[in-house]
């Protein structure tokens, strides 16, 4: 499944497990860039789950708004149709009443030309008793005929001023009632059928216009309308409980006919103020402290009246309740669809993806023992199974590569140390031979120091020792060299910082640098040779500085040495300095190692850098060695 292609095991640095996983995974995927393995921390706005929900809402919200619009339009249409239907009923009644009143007015006008009425008005004073009685009887008969012509007529009166008599279709002949005449008389300049409200009765009056002699009218015909018949007709509209009808005279805004128990609560004046003055019919909503009503109205210009029919709000809205119910059902179903979609998306997509991302983050943090437990057989089940197989194979590969790397490093360290020991051994024997020949008194101390030196380098208990032991060993070495070059060499050896005295470091990293300063720096100087060993420490690491005042290091050689330390390869010839540089980098990382410069003293300056930041894992490995 995976093809591990590692050209050289030794070229892989001693990474923590997370970094080793990344390195192996890159090799296993044909050297893809490591950036591709970085798992981003998803924000809410950029997650797949939130985008799916937003996309679904973008789809469902217009559909929901369209449904609300269609419902609102349906409610408006139904409400408008109810309004039109009720207004049509009111207008039909008012038109019928208008036609009936007009017919009555025609009969009334026709009666003005009645033969017997004119005889009584003109010839009353010259008529004998018989003529008067006969004319009055004939006139009354005419009035009864008019009264019987319509159910809306209650009584017909003829006021005859010259005779001083009032002829009634109901009560017969009586003396003239001047108060009634004055109240029900309509001015001649008013047009239309004016209905007069007098003493609780409704009257239509028509009088004779001025005659040729320009005297006052001689007679007046007054028809009293049947209010019971009008109320019965209005009652036909009150089919709904709580509804009512009101007939209003616009001349004085007085109520002519009220088939309602709510005239007072309706606030008639405010209702009339809200009506469309120019429209003949319509519907308005009236709200008071105790009632809410829809008022349908129709206006008659001929009668100068307006008919109001009020219907309680609940009866108008009752046919619309089913629409409201379906709106709520539609809204609840829409919300349920959104919730179900969100939950199913979370359960079947976001949650499995989150589980997979969480597992990858654990692997990224170095936990390669993670395994996803699942029982699904869908696409995510396949991904989980492949992920578990991948982690198992990676664990196997890491175990092989990591263990091989450690074994190879330990073998390489042993080999490098073995290259150091013979080099110094040859020089030491040469020095003993020389001192024995000349009978040097320092031979005994020299051999003692030499014994301590070789006891240190040949001790195989551990490849890593405390820094203080390494510094003490370097001190033993400088003591040996001082016995040889005491007359022309000065050594300035600073104290090891206490905070780093227990730091575990590879063996033999400081002494070869000092040895290099002796051999290549001041060995050929006849006097005034200086070697200075200083320590610069902080929380991030330690710098050990070894410099001399030798003048044998040319700029070309210094540049060559710098390049050798910076670009050391497997096939590079191993020298003491390169040896130490590679060992330090193997243990403490690439930021550590040796760096060479021109010293202020004039010779070579070697800085041994040990970076603690990022090197803790290696120090721990050193502890285990």
Describe the protein in words:
It is found in: Membrane. It comes from Anaerobacterium chartisolvens. The chain crosses the membrane at residues 48-70, 323-343. Keywords: Kinase, Membrane, Phosphoprotein, Transferase, Transmembrane, Transmembrane helix. By secondary structure, this protein is of the alpha+beta class. A six-stranded antiparallel sheet has the order 3-2-1-6-5-4. A five-stranded antiparallel sheet has the order 8-7-11-10-9. It has a five-stranded mixed sheet with strand order 13-15-16-18-17. It has 17 helices and 18 strands. The protein has helices spanning 17-28, 48-111, 115-122, 129-148, 178-184, 227-235, 263-266, 268-274, 313-317, 321-364, 379-438, 443-457, 467-485, 511-522, 555-566, 576-588, 616-624; strands at residues 153-160, 165-168, 172-175, 195-198, 201-207, 219-225, 244-249, 254-259, 281-287, 292-300, 305-312, 464-466, 489-493, 504-506, 529-538, 541-548, 593-598, 604-611. The relative contact order is 0.07. The protein is rod-shaped, with a radius of gyration of 62 Å.
